[in-house]
What does this fold into?
Amino acid sequence: MFSLRKGLLIAVAGLGVPWITAGQEKPAIPIPDVIQKFAANESELVKVRASYTYRQDVRVQSLDKKNAVTGEHRVVSQFAPAASGNSIERVLEAPLDTLKGFGLTPQDMVDIRETQSAVLTTDEIEKYNVTYRDKENVNGTSCLVFDVKPKKVEKDQRYFEGRIWVEDRDYHIIKSNGKSVPDIQSNREENLFPRFEMNRELVDGYWFPKSIQADDTLQFSSGPQHIRQITIFENYRKP
It folds into this structure.
């Protein structure tokens, strides 16, 4: 998602065969059923979230070797429901981009809004191998942990690769950690993508994205570039 002024920043269909090893705590229902349930919940989440208004604050920073901020890209937007069933974005603030050493592309913003939210819907889940790992507690919520990896990478398609945490009562994704893939490298462009963590919050019974954070050093051919991203979603409400 981040690129050297060529292009910056900062999923699943055919399931892999989940497995359990000795010592892992089994879910209450079969793993394939868990996967289908959280995918169905993701499909519903997409529709429900589009019926809410909310504010999105995207901040991307370039940093030097001493971790001092050298530049920033920031866009503050308000999203609202549209008659089409999708959301309409209204930009509230967009100061001059002062990033140093790399630039943002339109694809980067798509990743921030979509891929980084790890919306693994029923339509998408078959594109991924999904492997159960174990149970963990996340801020007091018991979760099932899965590794997610695309089965194959199609041209001009974006995917999520990493780990998700699914609360084990109603099977909603509440957290993810990974990156958007693939990195894009050719003679003409070099777009590299950082690892990020996405956290959600419970709103009216739905786990909506709350924050996405990345702090990573990208290894460009011209040298390493430290980047930081903070995206905040807030003020979810029905219009």
